[in-house]
Amino acid sequence: MSEADELFGIAEVSAAIGLEPDTLRYFERQGVVPSPRRDGAGRRQYATADVELIRMLVHLRETGMPLADIAQFTGADGKAADPARLRVELLTAHRRRIHDRREELDRALDVISRKIADFSDRMTSPEDLLERPDCTIAYGVQGEGPLLFLVGAPVGRAGFAALAHELAGRFTVVTHDPRGIGASRAVPGMAAPTPEVLAEDLAALVDRFTGGPALFAGTSGGAVTLLELGKRHPDMVGRAVLHEPPLVSLLEDADLGPPGPRQRSASRRPTRSGPCRSSST
Question: What is the pTM of this model?
Answer without folding.
Answer: 0.54
